[in-house]
Design a protein that fits this description.
The complex is a heterodimer of chains A (646) and B (148). Chain A is an alpha/beta fold and 646 residues long. Helices cover 34% and strands 14% of the residues of chain A. In chain A, helix 7 crosses helix 14 (357-374). Chain B has helices at residues 3-18, 94-106, 116-124, 126-139, 143-146, and strands at 25-30, 36-46, 57-63. In chain B, helix 3 (116-124) crosses helix 4 (126-139). Chain B has a three-stranded antiparallel sheet with strand order 1-2-3, with helices on one face. Chain B has 148 residues and is of the alpha+beta class. Chain B has one domain: Ubiquitin Conjugating Enzyme. Classes of the chains: A alpha/beta (646), B alpha+beta (148). The interface between A and B is large, with 61 and 59 residues. Chain B: InterPro entries: Ub_conjugating_enzyme (IPR050113), UBC (IPR000608), UBQ-conjugating_enzyme/RWD (IPR016135). Chain B: It holds the Pfam family UQ_con. Chain B: It comes from Coccomyxa subellipsoidea. Chain B: Residues 4-142 form the UBC core domain.
Chain lengths: 646, 148
């Protein structure tokens, strides 16, 4: 076993929070042959948990520094660092096939999917992980085969089970009229108000609708420019006008919808002059408000319109303290002013960025003012930033546990004991008081026949993508060879071709116009070498992914058709339960379908339990899905191999 | 894009082509370069016959996220079945959403209004409401709205 570990060549994807812990645990467990990919450079905010990095490393490649730091205490380890994006084409199937195992410590779903698909295609087991605050999970994904090529152990792939997202959407009416939680106010400030004031003017947000679409005749009509700065309007006057519009007039308007407030507490309109504590009678639409309150003191400073921070200008340094109403109003006005005067170039095309102090200050102040109007608790800058930016603070201990679990799963696979593989979830609370367990380990799920990544049959098509048109592909390959009737062809780049039933005349026309295009010149990046065509049929139950390989020299005698189709062509009968994997690599494209069904795997329908293998079980609880509690219970029953923590 | 969202939208598209209510349109948006944005559907809902909405064909955008169908699509309409806190279920189809909105046009939900003005007129002056709606119906019977 020691030898196996020592000689095992493994790939670590990601050298961040999990990556550092994983790399350390790997080398201390005896792994010596490791390659490491990470595209990022080290930032100061990483240093509290990514312990292979020191302050002096800030700005350097994570992969390289991590490799150097580990070499310092394990000189025997052979660690190759790649600074790059795992999606780059140099990290292709052949690259992945050099490894015995792939270990993921990634921070985004896109890259995880990409690695999952490469591992599927290269046939390399993947140990996948993730953490989110106190929560985390390690899952194992593989299709192991014996010497005869028969599948012996198969798990679900990373994409088989839908991932519960923590990005919640909120109904438009709640955000616009009846917020009752801080998050509703923050979404309003960030998605509606910020976008309206500083984003692209053609981006109509729901804010406008209150007045613009109501029709004519009442003299209430307003141009779409209410939220734009008027010619000659000072930044302060503009800020005061916006304040009045959104916190006074809009609230008054909403109050008129009496039915809304039958069972709710009605909001209270805010008045800028009373908040700022001066009863200037001039505080109406125009320059009156500009001379009001302390905002004016700063605006006259002129030099401070740096456009970087309203808090700095106002001396609000404690980001954990909740501002009072007056401070919120001041930050609101000052941040608008700084935006207009400090960064005039960005107004009209700004996008909210959680790292942009001024944007976060604006959103905090605006959401707190709205919260004040609606009697909702207000947030400190720090909290509002966390909510607005969907930030969950990383916890080093969770990463360390996950790193250790990855190594344990890796060892099980090296020991030839895949039957002991577990998907392990780190829980935040002890859910079952009798068990006192924070780690919930369950058997890996079974693959879903409906999975887009591993459940669809895959074929390999070698063809000249420069000289073959879409029409030829459809006629020769899809209709003649694969017996499709009304094919739909899609690419990952967003190209789509449809024919057959249920299309309007203009759609038929548009699709027909695409037929003469050459494959590599199709819209959305083409269908060239290395790309995948997703093909289904409108009238048949048929679905297949075709991987395209380009070849330009064709020997007409050897291949009179001008293409080579490799892999197991699925039967044209319904294939809902069939799962065909392709044996042919690029080196063996001649393996045309010949009824060789060795690699046909029949899988059963997925179990319910499979769907709960999702670390974010907490979301499930809030989910309206009534089945969730049952699923959770099932998962707990399955946890026959749980590690006790206390 | 999420494989799940992509797949589900392809299913929705296939089902819609097989069977959809007369006069309704729902299709993924084609971008200027000829590629298709599966997350962004342009829909049209015809006003029901024998109602003040008759004659109009009302455009609606459905914006799907990569979390679909865990999360509902976003539309500028307040409708319980696309409200994640109320009636949304991942099994709700595009067809059901559009039929629901069509129904809502003639039976507005007064306890959850979306627009101040429309709400006020509807409550206080039904005749004026009918007149305004008919104006809208005329506006949206225009060629430029009824063909994409």
């Amino acid at each position: 076993m020691k030898e196996k570990i020592k000689s095992a060549k493994v790939l670590c994807v990601g050298a961040g929070g999990i990556g550092c812990e994983l790399l350390k645990t790997l080398v201390l467990s005896g792994f010596e042959d490791i390659e490491l990919i990470d595209m990022d450079t080290i930032e100061t905010s990483n240093l509290n948990r990514q312990f292979l990095f020191r302050r002096k490393h800030v700005g350097e490649s994570k992969a390289k520094v991590a490799a150097d730091s580990v070499r310092a205490f394990r000189p025997n380890a052979k660690i190759v660092a790649h600074q790059g994006n795992v999606k780059e084409s140099k990290f292709d199937k052949e690259f992945f096939q050099k490894f015995l195992l792939v270990l993921n410590g990634l921070d985004n779903v896109e890259a995880r999917r990409h690695v999952n698909r490469l591992c599927l295609s290269a046939g390399i087991p993947l140990i996948e992980s993730g953490t989110e605050g106190y929560l985390g999970q390690v899952t194992v994904h593989y299709r192991l085969k014996n010497a005869a090529g028969e599948a012996t152990h198969v798990t679900e792939c990373f994409e088989c089970a839908p991932k519960q997202s923590r990005n919640k959407t909120y109904p438009v009416c709640t955000i616009r009229n009846t917020p009752d939680k801080p998050i509703h106010c923050i979404v309003w400030a960030k998605e509606l108000l910020f976008a309206r004031l500083f984003g692209r003017p053609d981006q109509v947000t729901d804010l406008d609708e209150n007045k613009n679409k109501e029709g004519e005749g009442d003299g209430k009509e307003e141009g779409p420019s209410v939220f734009l700065r008027q010619d000659g309007e000072s930044a302060d006057a503009y800020a005061a006008r916006i304040f009045k519009r959104v916190f006074t007039e809009d609230i008054e308007n909403v109050l008129k919808m009496e039915d809304l407030w039958k069972n709710r507490d009605p909001p209270t309109p805010l008045r800028l002059d009373s908040i700022l504590g001066q009863s200037s009678s001039a505080a109406s639409d125009t320059h009156g408000a500009a001379s009001n309150g302390t905002a004016a003191a700063h605006s006259n400073g002129g030099l401070q319109a740096a456009g970087d921070s309203a808090c700095k200008a106002l001396g609000l340094t404690d980001s954990h303290r909740v501002w009072n109403l007056r401070e919120n109003a001041q930050v609101f006005l000052e941040s608008i002013r700084q935006f207009l005067e400090g960064r005039p170039g960005e107004v009209g095309e700004a996008v909210f960025d959680k790292e942009d102090d001024l944007a976060v200050e604006f959103v905090t102040a605006a959401s707190n003012l709205r919260a004040a109007a609606y009697g909702i608790p207000q947030q400190s800058l720090f909290n509002a930033k966390g909510i607005a930016g969907n930030i969950i603070h990383a916890i080093a201990t969770t990463n360390a546990i996950v790193g250790g679990l990855i190594v344990i799963e890796a060892m099980k696979l090296l020991a030839g004991a895949p039957e002991h593989s577990k998907a392990t979830f780190i829980l935040k609370h002890i859910t079952n008081p009798k068990m006192k367990r924070l780690l919930n380990a369950v058997s890996p799920g079974e693959p879903s026949p409906k999975c887009a990544a591993c459940g669809t049959a895959r074929l390999e098509l070698v063809i000249d993508t420069h000289t073959t048109s879409l029409g030829q592909l459809i006629d020769k390959v899809l209709k003649k060879r694969l017996s499709l009737v009304e094919p739909t062809v899609r690419t990952d780049g967003g190209f789509e071709y449809e024919e057959g039933e249920g299309l309007d005349e203009d759609e038929v026309e548009a699709n027909r116009g695409r037929l003469p295009l050459m494959l590599d010149a199709l819209p959305g990046g083409g269908l060239g070498h290395g790309m995948t065509a997703h093909v289904e049929d409108q009238v048949q139950e048929f679905k297949v992914a075709i991987e395209i390989t380009h070849k330009d020299d064709w020997d007409e005698e050897a291949h009179p058709e001008g293409f080579i189709l490799g892999g197991s062509v699925p039967p044209s009968a319904p294939t809902a339960n069939g799962d065909t994997s392709v044996a042919a690599g690029p080196s063996a494209p001649a393996a045309v379908s010949d009824g060789d069904d060795d690699d046909l795997i029949i899988v059963e329908a997925p179990t319910l339990a499979q769907q709960q293998r999702d670390a974010k079980g907490k979301q499930k609880r809030e989910n309206e899905d009534e089945e969730a509690p049952r699923k959770r219970q099932r998962a707990v029953q399955q946890s026959d191999n749980v590690i006790e923590l206390d | 894009m999420s494989g799940v969202a992509q797949q589900r939208l392809q299913q929705e598209r296939k089902a819609w082509r097989k069977d959809h209510p007369f006069g309704f349109v729902a299709k993924p948006r084609t971008l200027p370069d000829g590629s298709v944005d599966m997350l962004h559907w342009d829909c049209r809902i015809p006003g029901k016959a024998n109602t003040i909405w008759e004659g109009g064909v009302y455009p609606l955008e459905l914006k799907f996220s990569s979390d679909y169908p865990s999360n509902p699509p976003i539309a500028m309409v307040c409708l319980s079945i696309i409200n994640p806190d109320q009636g949304w279920r991942p099994s709700v189809t595009v067809k059901q959403i559009l039929m629901g909105i069509s129904e809502l046009l003639n039976n507005p939900n007064n306890s959850d209004p979306a627009q101040t003005y429309g709400y006020e007129v509807f409550r206080k002056d039904k005749a004026k409401y009918a007149r305004l709606v008919k104006e809208q119906a005329r506006k949206y019977s225009d060629e430029k709205y009824s063909t994409l």
